[in-house]
Amino acid sequence: MAAVSSAKIGQKINEWYQNIKRLNVTDAEMLRSEIRRDLDIMEEDEQAVLYFQLMEFRHEQMLEYMNLGARKLNKAEYLRSVEGQGRKFTGILEYYFNFFKGMYEFSQGDYITAITFYRQAEKRLDRVADEVERAEFYFKMAEIFYHMKQTQMSMYYIMLALDTYKAHPTYLVREIQSRFVVSGNYIDLNSSEKSLPHLDKALEKSHAIKDELMIGISLMNLGHCYSSLEKYQLALDHLEEAENYLKRHSHIRAILYQQALIHFKLGNDELAKEYLQRGIDYLKSNPDQLFESLYDFLVNLYIKPLNLDDLKDILKRFDNIRGYPYLEELALESAEFYTKCERMEESVYLYQQMVYAQKQIRRGDCLYEH
């Protein structure tokens, strides 16, 4: 059997990556299987093998995001094995390695390490000729800065990405996701009303392509936006509809949390407890430390007798770079509730915790240097 040229396999890997970015799982799986077969008869080319290994890692990240992964691949070990084979990454492969490693560290909640790898990738961004590929980098930068509440940086990168995705209709899912990030940034800027057009457009486009995951996330984000505007019934309506689309996705834990919180705010304690218990039950089979702490917060604040020491212990769990945005929100929520209960001295302490979180978030500006 004649050997397959490495150039031909490289083209197939490029096509594979396009489908990964578009979340086209079926086509991506088909191409991965086809390329695996071709590698057995490929002419010797170490760089092509490295390219395949890196893209396989990226493929597994896609499956995990879609809740389709069997989670058999230990991604940290896989990356270490690729890096530790004594091979030298050059040119575009150096970019991909740092970019994908940054994505992995972000998924693990290690934002500082993720930023470090993204910075290394950005130094090689001039090797990326395709504008859509550069938009993918801008999107990921915007995503991590959004989670760190570095709002201006996030907005800068996401608008670069959005302009490109809007010009390439085949990347409609990425346009939708970019609008989620724009929306979240507007909420963080206390301009929630500016979020609504982006979320309405995202929902419209999600329905147009019949993507149930994107429909559900659009509805969930609309619920969050209306909640920030204190339009609680509209928020609950959208969250309930989102739940119908996301019952089998990990986003359900955030939806149940939001529903419980809103009902507690409205004084609907029994209904709130139902959503809270459903969330707790979900975590029993799908553990997640962040949401376990969030649910513990609701129990402590709204169900148990008020005890500031216990609340302090829960808030301490958020005293880290990933947790500061949550600490800011939870401290404010607690302070307002303690004020309502006329526990003013304790309320002042909680407002101080909110200010502390805000200061830590602002210090995150120093993490990224051009």
TrEMBL record:
Gene3D superfamilies recorded: Tetratricopeptide repeat domain (1.25.40.10)
Assigned keywords, A-Z: Cytoplasm, Hydrolase, Repeat, TPR repeat
The protein's Enzyme Commission number: 3.1.-.-
Localization annotation: Cytoplasm
EC category name: hydrolase
One Pfam family hit: TPR_8
Chief location category: cytoplasm
GO molecular function: hydrolase activity
GO CC annotations, alphabetized: cytoplasm
UniProt-listed InterPro entries: Bac_ResReg_Asp_Phosphatase, TPR-like_helical_dom_sf, TPR_rpt
Family to which the UniProt record says this protein belongs: Belongs to the Rap family.
Alphabetical list of PANTHER family matching this protein: TETRATRICOPEPTIDE REPEAT PROTEIN 29 (PTHR46630:SF1)
Protein name as catalogued: Response regulator aspartate phosphatase A
Annotated organism of origin: Bacillus safensis
Gene transcribed to yield this protein: rapA_3
